[in-house]
Specification:
The complex is a heterodimer of chains A (261) and B (267). Helices cover 80% and strands 0% of the residues of chain A. Classes of the chains: A mainly alpha (261), B alpha/beta (267).
């Protein structure tokens, strides 16, 4: 490693930043001097300007926070129901038998195709957006929880039993903690699809007039390409923040996982 | 606490593909003695320990631990014994102290008391200062000590050990063997120690039960009359050499038998 780390020179460390800067500079140059229409590809500088304007007039924070609340609502519903159903399936073979055909039938269905049906049933209000994202996120959470519980090392269960643990104590003190890392990775998958589905639902629900999906589709329809880019940047940053906060929370909940060599 | 096994039979699998793992095993494991069960891999020595510990049900025969006789598989064996596992089976999410105190926690011993007892045991196995570490943060030898402490805290008269030192490097293994000898000589429990290492079996045991290749039967019982306290130095004495050769001879026969069986099965 020693000889290798020597090759990690300044260039090695700065390379990603340099490439990003070069791409941005090239982009700016191409738009300004090579006659690319801003309506197709606005210059980074004007995107940045729009981003600032949208933050200053409060529209971006507003739409972002609306989307955030919808994501949290959908995620909460999916997280709780998914974990409960997954645990039930993992602990009771009967529950697993009952639920399994439903999951087998519904999991492969692209959930986005449920949107028309859900709009018929629920309209295009908040309920529809939360339901579609919760339904989508439910599956990865439930399936990950179920398999995490099923895959708990049998040796740990035998050892706990040998040390005098009752069946109930084994479930609570061994199976669930041992399954936690699997459950949190299911929640990460669930969060990913919740973000996608909330933004998609905001784009499709015709009467929606708030949220990042609405902002993007609206800006797109009136050809405000700068706004579209600004919205995409905001969403990317937002997604990264959520993912990292979640990873941090996972480390808090299951700190032993990373330290295993 | 005496352990008496009579005509113990263990069959694995369903009718056409049944495997006879233990074939009419009978033996009295004397109370407060250190008995090593030695045999080639696949001879059913771990199975025997797990049956005595009430961890696995068995097909037929009688197992008596202390005065409680257990026929067939239904009655819960294991209330007088505790197992130290080959793969340790420590709970990675629990700190060392919470691992060691696990058994007491299950019994409903209150936190202050169980922590105090766990702390004393952790110190006695040389892990003072590591109470709050988690098993994945410890070395193999240290984890081994945690597993030992977790079993010892149960204060059960019988301790079953299933190749507990097999995964350790040679130096750590020597240290842990001496540690175990020290614990045994102090506390005088009945210990059943499963191993495939001949030197380990002779160094630790009062008696070495040599098993045959599958199906597992007891081939011979070697009395080890080396004086206690034992130490690693005894490995170089002529008595140790004599016992080692005897066990090696028996094991070699069984390994060759096992290989013949495999050849027959393939051919």
């Amino acid at each position: 490693m020693a000889s290798r780390s020597k090759s990690k020179t300044l260039l090695y460390l700065a390379a990603p930043t340099l490439v990003i800067a070069a791409v941005l500079a090239l982009w700016e140059f191409a738009v300004r001097y090579k006659g690319i229409q801003p309506i197709f590809l606005p210059a980074p500088s004007s995107i940045l300007k729009y981003l600032w304007v949208m933050i200053a007039d409060g529209s971006l924070p507003y739409h972002l926070s609306v989307t955030f609340l919808r994501i949290m609502a959908g995620f909460l519903v999916a997280g709780i129901t998914g974990i409960v159903v997954g645990i039930l399936m993992g602990m009771s073979p009967l529950a697993a038998r009952i639920v399994d055909p439903w999951i087998a039938a519904l999991y492969p269905l692209p959930k986005i195709s449920l949107i028309p049906l859900l709009i018929i049933w629920l309209g295009t209000g908040e309920t529809y957006k939360i339901v579609i994202s919760a339904v989508t996120a439910f599956f990865p959470v439930a399936i990950s929880t179920f398999s995490a519980i099923r895959q708990v090392d049998g040796g740990l269960i035998k050892a706990a039993k040998d040390l005098g643990a009752s069946a109930r104590q084994i479930q609570l003190k061994v199976v669930i903690p041992a399954a936690l890392p699997g459950i949190t990775s299911g929640l990460q998958l669930g969060m990913g699809v919740t973000i996608i589905m909330v933004v998609a639902a905001e784009m499709i629900g015709g009467s929606s007039d708030s949220g990042m999906g609405f902002l993007l589709i609206h800006a797109g329809q009136v050809m405000e390409t700068e706004k579209v880019f600004a919205g995409l940047i905001a969403l990317a940053v937002f997604g990264a923040v959520i993912t990292n906060v979640q990873k941090w929370l996972d480390r808090m909940v299951a700190p032993w996982v990373e330290k295993e060599h | 606490m005496d352990i008496v096994v009579e005509n113990l039979v263990q069959v694995f699998g369903e009718a056409p593909k049944q495997v006879l793992a233990l074939d009419r095993v009978s033996h009295r494991f004397p109370s407060q003695k250190f008995t090593c069960i030695l045999g080639p891999s696949g001879c059913g020595k771990s199975t025997l320990a797990q049956i005595i510990g009430g961890i696995e049900p068995f097909t037929s025969g009688t197992v008596t631990v202390g005065s409680d006789a257990h026929q067939k598989s239904r009655i819960a064996l294991g209330s007088h014994s505790v197992m130290v596992w080959q793969h340790l089976n420590l709970f990675p999410w629990r700190s060392v102290i919470d691992n060691v105190a696990f058994g007491l926690e299950m019994q409903g011993v209150d936190k202050a008391e169980r922590n105090e007892r766990a702390k004393a045991l952790i110190a006695s196995v040389g892990l003072r200062g590591f109470e709050q570490h988690r098993p994945p943060q410890l070395s193999g030898g240290m984890r081994q000590r945690v597993a030992l402490a977790r079993a010892l805290i149960m204060e059960r008269p019988v301790m079953l050990m299933d190749e507990p030192f097999a995964a350790l490097d040679a130096q750590t293994k020597i240290v842990m063997q001496e540690e175990l000898v020290r614990i045994y000589e102090r506390s005088k429990r009945t210990i059943l120690f499963v191993t495939h290492a001949i030197d380990e079996a002779i160094l630790l045991g009062d008696e070495v039960v040599v098993m045959t290749a599958r199906p597992g039967r007891i081939k011979e019982v070697i009395k080890v009359d080396l004086p206690r306290p034992r130490s690693q130095d005894m490995v170089n004495t002529p008595e140790f050499g004599r016992l080692y050769n005897r066990a090696l001879h028996l094991i070699r026969e069984e390994v060759l038998n096992a290989m013949k069986q495999q050849d027959a099965a393939v051919g």
